[in-house]
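WARN no homologs supplied; continuing
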Amino acid sequence: METVAIFGVGLIGGSFALALRHAGFKGVILGVSSPRTIEQAVALRVIDAGVDEETAARQADLIYLAQPIHEILNSIARLNPWVKPEALVTDAGSTKTAVTQHASRYLRRCEFLGGHPLAGKETAGVSSAEPQLFQGRKYVVTPFHSEQLAVTAVRNFLIWLDKIGAVRVVLDPAEHDRAVAYTSHVPQLAATALALALKNSGANLDVFGPGVLDMTRLAMSPFSVWKDILETNSSEIRSALSIYIAALQRLTDAVGSEDMRNQFEQGADLARQLRGSKLFRGVE
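OK structure emitted
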């Protein structure tokens, strides 16, 4: 792998570029983004140069799509005439079914591997990028079939994931989307809902402790990041939300009753289970 092209040099794309450099990549890293972002990314030495998408696709051994989901879909639809047959296209989108279906339809001349790094911050943009962002974090890959993991371009990419410290998880795209609806998308919406409830409560907001700060941290995530995620995983999110709302209703019914003890114990059991997982990395 001599040339990498990053489409969308923001937090994730920029961090991937920095992580590659930190892990020993000596090749060329190209960026495809807005002129302002490219200027900033070059100044910060995140990428070597900015180019248009056709130039990037014709030169790259690895094309890393780190844009919002709909932009990823649009890029996939345009890439096929330009890519090198031995190249790999991968993405960092937070939903996988729509992306992998699109790639299967439009991208025929080279390999495609769906991906989703479970890493991020409340802040976006290349100025927030850091080489350690993926270290110890789960990185889901969603191959079309298990044999694809042995293809040379895919295998080389997986080796680089290991080098940057990511923890690889292999899932079916639909299984991924069901899982993240519960573990990522509902937590975001729950944080937003709690912040909205507090905003409209009329309560004295001078009285708060670290708990409310922890619970509303995700509410600072920009909608621009979440818009496409919510649109492309809407059915799974609605299903997960309905189960979450039912759990809230059980808590509402249990307030002041002995059943609340059972609710607390079941919740604590799941929280301990997550923290006992070999894939757990503590949060700030």
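The mean pLDDT is 94.
OK
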